[in-house]
Amino acid sequence: MLGTGLDLPYISRMSSALDTRPANFCETCAVRNRAICADLDTAEIAALNSIGRRRALKAGEQLMWEGDEAILVANVIDGMLKLATHTSDGKEQILGLIYPADFVGRPFGETSPYGVEALSDSLVCVFERKDFERFAREHPRLEHKLLQRTLGELDRTRRWMLLLGRMSAEQKIATFLLELADRLPSQTQSHGGEGETLIYLSLSRQQLADVLGLTIETVSRQLNGLRKSGIIEIPGRRELRILDRDALEARAA
Amino acid sequence: MLGTGLDLPYISRMSSALDTRPANFCETCAVRNRAICADLDTAEIAALNSIGRRRALKAGEQLMWEGDEAILVANVIDGMLKLATHTSDGKEQILGLIYPADFVGRPFGETSPYGVEALSDSLVCVFERKDFERFAREHPRLEHKLLQRTLGELDRTRRWMLLLGRMSAEQKIATFLLELADRLPSQTQSHGGEGETLIYLSLSRQQLADVLGLTIETVSRQLNGLRKSGIIEIPGRRELRILDRDALEARAA
DNA sequence: CGGACAGTTGATTCATGTCAAATCACGTGG
DNA sequence: CCACGTGATTTGACATGAATCAACTGTCCG
What we know:
homodimer, about 250 residues, alpha+beta, Jelly Rolls, Arc Repressor Mutant, subunit A, 4-stranded antiparallel beta sheet, 12 strands, about 35% helix, globular, DNA-binding
């Protein structure tokens, strides 16, 4: 379908002549139909593909640093990342969690107002910011997608403000668990009447605390409170099963 | 520069065949060069002008309701508005303050995730959301501006998360006063060596509390604490003078 | 003059933070 | 396979900042 050129090897800007990377990564991309590149046509995809490259990140690896020049932007293909800032006295606040198909980075901006770090091993599709911006300006369809995604992100971020500003620790935890259950590809087994959901947590207790504006001790206590009430189960440090979704929703208020 | 019509009275779209609506309100618009319409050319401006109308809002008047269908979007020409949501138990959280040249509303969305209310008497330029969307899709330059503004708003919103999640009451108040001093057209008189800034507050104590995720009593105490420390002066309920900006910055941490 | 409402102030409570210690989970090397 | 060490998590005791509850004081406006 794609005519000439596409089967030629892609040469990355750094690589040697031996680099024989396949022409079009996007074709087989897991988020092809959900990311901002979704409604580009084949030729556009090819062009975009030629300015981007894939990059694997280990859990804990930093993709961008708070305050640094914003050089990159990226689409997340797989994994989970966090955006975070710090107060001057070193407390961290996680500003958002990034899931597959989400876009990260600050196009049309000089410096990155937050750091970006992989929470689990991840795969991203990165672009030089300048390249991406040029491409975006030439392709209004892409910019439109980006706008839509940004507007959605803004809505979600604002909802989080309500959580941070006005909810109790218990409400915060309950709300967050429900959001995780919705956004993660979590396993739901309906047995009996209730649907039980198993969540794999990519976040440590500390990171949970940093998302919710709490301390690690409070997170631990609230979680175990919910466990003792029979609302959740904690089979392992990084696993969590929702036993009674209704009760959890009630606590989310 | 735009010839005829500018001196004719404005007649809304509901009007009769006698409608001799002036071609271009935008020409004289106070935010002409700062709002998202800034870099449209004359013809585009005229087209945009034809689908928008001006509307004056009294302080306290609601422009959109939380959860309602998102029918309108608007540019703010003058005044100050708030975006707000509520918890199920009725506590309010202000999600953002809107200043002149800012854009409000949720294009490409079905319902408005927050309410919009004027804090002071305001003047806005409203569009039917559908009309605006159509126009935006046909004018990538406008969409680009909107994208830029949305990205900026997202950055600001995320900075607010740090305040809500991790700052003490005193830090919140100090940070907010500094932000007001920067964003408001406030009067600065440098006398002696220090620059003193007079801020007119469009917000009641309750609204201040709702921005910062505090209670009204805490706001009052913190404000009077700063006053007793000689950092600010409170000449009237709605006025506030920053006497010692450095000290305020220190408290904002 | 007399509400009525916004803001202040004080006393008290309570949720969450802080500090400290115990426990757990897991990888390493013997 | 097990003891050990290390870092993560839990648990407990206690401190404290901010919320809550309750007067009180302005101030504006009829």
